[in-house]
Amino acid sequence: EGVHIDVQPGETVGLLGPNGAGKTTLVNIIAGYEVQEAGTVDIDGAPLDGLSPEKRSHAGLARTFQSGRLFNELTVAENVVLGAMGTGVPTKEANARAMQALEMLGLTDVMTAPAGGLSHGLSRLVGLARAVSARPRYLIMDEPAAGLNDHEVPALLEALGKVRTETGCGMLLIEHNVGLVADACSRVFVLASGALLF
């Protein structure tokens, strides 16, 4: 209801709020999985309204999911390659992008492992690598720290820092982990009952 959020290139912005506040609905609207009743979604002034999630990906928007949504029977590398292929690049380019993302996030040691056998923390990093391999201008992360233990959160924080500095993409981080948001984000919005508190 009247929500306005902006993210600049190279900036990490946080979105906090209790369960049921509307965070996932907002993310689904931005990513094209749901249609808003009013208002617009745009990337650098170019409207995305009416575009499918796939076309929004081609326009430079990527997202990670709460559940991770990895293909468990595929290897880590194959999962990451799929992120690049989703933008329509040829297989050779997709493989190169995937390798770069795997190296950036320190996942080369597990790249041949089946995704289904990974720890929860590594699964989250693979999901992030898959999104990064799409070379987005903007990245939405829906609760990437959900289910992580105290030892896994610092690795995620380090990964987010690498993505920001090495890719320059703007990132919207939707989280319950206030400490992670405080450490990772330059600005924070708070959503409650579908409206921004600040």
Search tags:
198 residues, 6-stranded mixed sheet, alpha/beta, two-stranded antiparallel ribbon
Descriptive account of the structure:
It is a single chain. The chain has 198 residues and is an alpha/beta fold. Helix 4 (91-104) crosses helix 5. The mean pLDDT is 93. 39% of the residues are buried. The protein has helices at residues 23-31, 53-58, 76-85, 91-104, 120-132, 153-167, 178-184; strands spanning 12-16, 42-43, 46-47, 61-64, 138-142, 170-174, 187-192, 195-196. The strands form 2 sheets. Strands 4-5-6-1-7-8 form a 6-stranded mixed beta sheet, with helices on both faces. Helix content is 37%, strand content 16%.
In brief:
With 198 residues, the protein is an alpha/beta fold. Helices cover 37% and strands 16% of the residues.
Helix content: 25-40%
Distance between the termini: 13 Å
**Strands of the biggest beta sheet: in what spatial order?**
4-5-6-1-7-8
What percentage of the residues does DSSP assign to strands (E)?
15-25%
Morphology call: globular
**Which structural class fits the helix and strand makeup?**
alpha/beta
SSE ordering:
EHEEHEHHHEHEHEE
